[in-house]
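Methods, example record. To illustrate the input and output format used throughout this study, we show the complete record for tRNA wybutosine-synthesizing protein 4. The sequence lines were provided to the predictor; the line carrying structure tokens was produced by it.
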Amino acid sequence: ASAMSLSRQVQGTGGSSAVSKCSAAARGYIQDRFLPLLAGRRRRRAPLVHRGYYIRARAVDHCVQDFLLKTRGHPRTQILSLGAGFDSLYFRLKDMGLLHHSVVYEVDFPNVTYQKAALIKRVKELSALVGDTRGEGLGAITFFGEDYKLLGVDLSELPKLERALEEAGVDNETPTLFIAEVVLTYMENSRSDALVQWAAERFSRACFLLYEQTRPGDPFGHVMQQHFSQLNSALHSLAQYPDCGAQQRRFLEKGWTECSVMDMNAFFTCCTPEDEQQRVQALEPFDEYEEWHLKCSHYFVLAASKGMEPSWTPLLTDTTAPDCDSPVRVAGSVTAAVCAKHSEIPGLRRYGHHSALIKPNVILTTGGFGEEEAQHCRMRNFHVLIKHAGCWKAGSVKRKNPDKRWDERLYHTVSCLSNGLALVVGGRTSPSSAGLGMLWLKFCETRHASEPGDITVELVSLEPAAEPAALRWRHSATEVTFRGEQYLFLYGGRSTLEPVLGDWCFLRIQELSCAVIPVEGPVPEGRHSHSACGWEGGVLIAGGLGAAEQPLGSVFFLRELNHGFQWQAVGTHPPLIPRYSHTAHVHDAKLLLVGGVWLHSSVPGVTVIDLTTGLCLDYTINAEHLEWPLMLHNHSSVLLPEEEELLLIGGGGNCFSFGTHLNSEPVVLSLSNILTSR
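The corresponding predicted structure is encoded as:
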């Protein structure tokens, strides 16, 4: 591709980003009345995209305002916004009265700055803030106000940039803040490195604010890179600087004396006040926590400085930021392989679904969001996998009453309570609509079902439709026995009104009503997207997402006593790394946690907790035999104890604005080496 067409593609990302910021401002995420005047077209984006652009704007504002505060004793300061596009930073700062002695220089491709200059002159509200303009059209200077200059230069051509800055009156001795918001990564590394080094060498008192992508090597990073490559806007920085530590070393080696960096999960937790976090979390119905945390772990903010007195450290806070690159101690690995099958397995590319072993070698998968008839939608069809002669056969299940409403739910549970009968509890359609109630699934089959077509399912609605306790999603439902009677223990989850539930209910299986059974001991904090397994007549709860949208690392055992149950905290050593959206199984007094999301630079594999000693070991999943990225959250898994194997079904999600990733087919993990190791 020609340099001209590549620059057009990169400019396109800037236009798209302005529209997304504008949509976030319209929903109250960011306060910015100038964005609509600059962005042009309006389009409403998804809540996940709003949050992504909110945290980006928040990080930039946090650092810029800190720079202006720290340098207010100086007679003059400069802000150099590189690749500024149609950004509104100057107008916001001027409107807030923060530019008493500062000049803002914006640099971008000449055609972008010409468009922006024409727009500013046309819109009174913008031109009034700039005031008198003069001297336009001199060399690269497209627009020239007293405290605002637009320069049309290609950033990769350093001599031209230097000449343009000189003509526009930039002073190398004045405290200067460089801003590069997803800009350097589009340049060849040799050119962006030269720019970073030039800024440190030429300016005696300088600060540099960088915001861009990181962590290309994991499944989410793979989808992210693919997206930008398809836009013809490859992310060049990632190969040479794949993590926060590498970016920090880059700046220190290029002449900057101080440099701190954090990924956006750490920034949101440590640099955003608690009340502001809560305000943003409550702005609109939201249920894409996994993709929010993954997006935030794949972007970072970096603040570097040199020659600043006092030093400029906007990312140092009272709260210790988790190290975004800290390694996880790994005990070994398990190998992932595509499961042996008689034919292709359509219908299992989905997430937010539920899979249950309804009888030996027969797995029923229901609900979720995925691919059906070549389009993405909430899944209507039920799906069955049958193991026959060592291989899996797959197909859709016939519905006895296809007109009966299933509600195409996500994040529900299915509990097989007797031969041929399963109870569906909760789930949701959209996060803004109320949780769904309960219904029975009745299985009818020929005696030795060996083909998916041998099984039919009948949906039986309940009258009255729901025990109020069932109106939740991202919860757990586990069978327990108390005094010889069977109950379903519903725990945690979330609802339309409550983003996190910490309550529980013992559901009588015969009457489907809640029983009052005493429970003592320390009550676990509320959570959703946790795991729950039956063990020794009680329930093991592990991980989950807590009230502040923070992953939890606690494990609790609900233990049966003579007169009721008791919560007991299960100690693990080393401590369990907080996670959620994983699956779990108990085998031979070992709790296996599979996949999920955590706030570390690696991806969760399989964690084995020895329930007798508390020893906690992490194993990575070796997915090199798969031809696609294995995204292990919002998946389902079924333990096949005799084979010492785990069957992983579905998983993936909507990867920010990079597209939806769905795991291509079911995967088998061989557990023999980790279940026998001591």
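Annotations derived from this record:
The mean pLDDT is 91.
The chain has two domains: 3-306, 330-675.
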